[in-house]
UniProtKB/TrEMBL annotation:
Function: Plasma membrane transporter mediating the uptake by cells of the water soluble vitamin B2/riboflavin that plays a key role in biochemical oxidation-reduction reactions of the carbohydrate, lipid, and amino acid metabolism.
Topological relation to the membrane, as annotated: Multi-pass membrane protein
UniProt protein name: Riboflavin transporter
Spans traversing the lipid bilayer: 12-32, 44-65, 77-98, 110-133, 140-162, 192-212, 246-267, 279-301, 308-329, 341-363, 375-397
Pfam families given in the database record: SLC52_ribofla_tr
Catalytic activity: riboflavin(in) = riboflavin(out)
Main location: membrane
Gene Ontology CC entries for this record: plasma membrane
GO molecular function, one term: riboflavin transmembrane transporter activity
Subcellular localization: Cell membrane
InterPro entries on file: Riboflavin_transptr
Recorded family membership: Belongs to the riboflavin transporter family.
Length: 411
């Protein structure tokens, strides 16, 4: 890709557009080390958030219905609408994320989870809407867009590292001296300012897509309509062999997304919080930064062979197993009070995030050979795997005793 002729301005705009896809979800995700201590759900908040994100897959159904009812409407119209919804959701959440309402006799973060749902509509629907739109441009720009999508995790992570978490909570007597309550040191700037910055970045994504779609200066980088139609009708000479390969690749994609979008986010608070809020903060922020790093590897390096990819995934089973073990053993995981324990849990999360992200990018690149149908099928499997992982972990976290949160201030 280094030797490919390309328009730098288009690269920048596509990266900025990709930035808006998962910006809302990733931005709210890196705020969890602060929010789990301040919202009523506590350590179960990540699993509720993951489920809210996956419920946003209703956007896929709505998009399919609209395509059926209005087949002549350009996909660009839907993209405009989605990015506008994402920008509005982030801006409103900045002011409403602490609002609660009683549900079943218990206070719940209804506003936060509802607006998270609307912010997630962008990312969930992008898999079957944004990727096919990229077929209108030369193949070299797919990686650029994916780098932008990766930046939707990198930029919020950098902001979160600057923001900090304020430190460990201090237990102080309550007003009537009857109990101890946790006093949380404030970060450098609060969630309100953080989410307003993300709202501005989401607006930048909308402006960038508007430029990509409308500027005639990029016509030379577009693919001819005849080539698009040929790509849509592409079939392979050995149908049975191709079907077998697609089954394996799509199964891999489903498993990777069940992990990255369902299982891992739901258990991270239980895996990291026993080591301290700073460990959780670093694992979340650095792990999110590993995504664009993996995408950059796809831009600058040759894709791994199938055997090398299998070796990578096999090696990832070790840190993944350690992550799940620490979550299940919470609130007393191994090496809880040792510096080495903090380092090991943070490294495990970063390595696992990077490896899974690279494998997902490898599958997306492979899926392009199936044309528009292949990309849409890959996107649908992505969301199906994510939804399955999120629902399963929501049930396990909230309705079993597998995962345990200790009291912030033991009495």
């Amino acid at each position: 890709m280094l030797g490919s002729q390309r328009r730098v301005a288009l690269d920048v705009l596509l990266a900025c557009w990709g930035l808006g896809t998962w910006l809302g979800v990733n931005g709210l995700y890196v705020q969890l080390p602060l929010l789990v201590e301040r919202l009523p759900e506590g350590w179960t908040l990540p699993s509720s958030m993951a489920l809210a994100v996956q419920l946003a897959n209703v956007g896929l159904v709505l998009y399919a219905v609209l395509r059926r009812l209005c087949p002549r409407v350009s996909d660009a119209i839907y993209i405009y609408g989605l990015l506008s919804i994402g920008t509005l959701a982030l801006t409103l959440n900045a002011f409403l994320h602490t609002a609660t309402a009683p549900v079943g006799g218990t206070d719940r973060s209804v506003a936060f989870l509802t607006l998270t749902f609307f912010a997630a509509l962008v990312g969930c629907t992008s898999s079957v809407l944004f990727y096919p739109y990229l077929r209108h441009f030369r193949d070299v720009y797919l990686a650029t867009y994916l780098v932008g999508e990766g930046l939707s995790g990198f930029i919020p992570s950098v902001l979160a590292l600057i923001q900090g978490v304020g430190g460990e909570p201090e237990c102080v007597p309550s007003a009537d001296n009857s109990t101890l309550v946790a006093l949380y040191p404030p970060p450098r700037f609060d969630t309100l300012a953080f989410l307003l910055v993300l709202g501005g970045l989401s607006a930048l994504s909308l402006v960038s897509f508007t430029s990509v779609h409308n500027l005639r200066a990029f016509d030379s980088e577009r693919v001819a309509q005849a080539s698009l139609e040929k790509d849509d009708e592409a079939t392979a000479p050995k149908e049975s062999l191709v079907a077998g390969r697609w089954l394996v690749v799509l199964s891999l994609m489903a498993c990777l997304n069940a992990l990255s979008n369902g299982v891992l986010p739901s258990v991270q608070s239980y895996s990291c919080m026993p080591y301290g809020v700073r460990a959780y903060h670093l694992a979340v922020s650095l792990g999110a930064m590993a995504n664009p790093a993996a995408c950059l590897a796809g831009v600058w390096l040759r894709p791994l062979s199938v055997r090398a990819l299998c070796a990578l995934l096999s090696a990832l089973t070790l840190p993944l197993a350690y992550i799940l073990a620490t979550a299940l053993l919470s609130p007393e995981p191994p090496l809880q009070h040792a510096t080495g324990g903090v380092l090991l849990i943070v490294v495990s999360w970063v390595v696992t995030s990077a490896g899974v992200s690279y494998a997902r990018m490898w599958v997306y690149g492979w899926a392009r050979r199936g044309g528009a149908r292949g990309m849409r099928l890959c996107g649908a499997v992505t969301q199906a795997g994510s939804a399955t992982g999120s629902l399963l972990l929501f049930l396990l976290v909230n309705y079993t005793r597998l995962f345990t949160q200790p009291a912030a201030c033991p009495q």
